[in-house]
Amino acid sequence: MPISRNSIARAAFAFVLLAAVAGAQTLAPEVQAKVQAKAKQLSSWSTDPVIVEAVKAHNANPPADYRDMTQAKWTSLSVLDPSVRAFSKNALGQHLKAKQDPQITECFVSGADGTKVAFLAKTTYWSHKDKDKHKVPMSGKVYIGPAQLDDSTGLMEVQIGLPVLDGARPIGSIVIGLGVSKL
What are the domain boundaries of the chain? Predict the structure, then answer.
């Protein structure tokens, strides 16, 4: 008996759906409470003067070396590439490293355009402009994502997106990954 294209399509859709469900997990209520508490604790980063000033400078004059950066170029760069390392070695990258605690598995700061200002380690994406983790903070709200395996860290984590605020106006975003096993 031949297999129809419709059967193959249904099987493929079911596989994709199962993979998506397996990739994002619902957190137990006690872990959700810990994530909420951590988000509240981290909220002061939204107005941290070092973060705000770095984002303002980026928004006013994005680095010329990165104006033609594309996702394809970003993906092709090694974590050791000087243009990648510059984001973890700049003043804001060093400031983030000093603020890191054992629960934080990743952290990156993006300007209003979604491109990177600084990070702890290379991110999967050059720009997060079209991602909720950036769009929600740019509306002035906090984003808390599902628990999922992160491509850049290889760890099960929950990402918190915070707005970078110039007064009450969102000018960028901070995304902080929390290791689920560390909560």
Answer: 28-182
**CATH placement of domain 28-182:** 3.30.450.20
- Is residue 149 classed exposed, middle or buried when 0-12, 13-18 and 19+ CB atoms within 10 A define those classes? middle
Question: In this predicted model, what pLDDT tens digit does every residue of 46-60 receive, in sequence order?
Answer: 999 999 999 999 999
> Could you read off the pLDDT of 56-79 as tens digits, one per residue?
999 999 888 888 899 999 999 999
